[in-house]
Structure prediction request, 182 residues.
Amino acid sequence: MVGGAGPLFRAPRTDAAFKSRIIPIPMTTKRIAATLCYVRSGGRTLMLHRNKKPGDMHRGKWNGLGGKFEPGESPEECVEREVREESGLKILDGRLRGVLTFPNFREGEDWLVFVYTASKFEGTLGVCAEGDLEWIADEKLADLPMWEGDRVFLPWLERRGFFSAKFVYRDGRLVGREERFY
Prediction:
């Protein structure tokens, strides 16, 4: 228990339909740490349409800004660097909103993602090597092609508090999830 809040995740389901969706995780799983930031301003969110990089596992999808940690970085250093590299903007008020896990998201890789929002920034929006940047009206975000789990957690960014969630994908489809709010 954490501060009397109970276990981090619900007890695992045991019914046959759920068990048939469980993905075996190889013992040689590599852990990938990354950040994801939703930069917001005036009812719009800066999104990245991943359409330029050959072989990109996110190709064709819209994401917030972010990427993998470099050696020795804190989550804050990573998110600030990634937003700057991808957009040219320097975020001034990055706020950690939650943590997401994606077991075996890519073959042999478990992803741990620190999710941020930011509404204060400086600089000029630049060109991104990974795709096209666009300010999208918040009410239109759900209309964009994105990972199914993103549609689940994006509304959580409007809530008070912190979230932790696990999203399980198989063959690019969301097959299970668990979440907790603090």
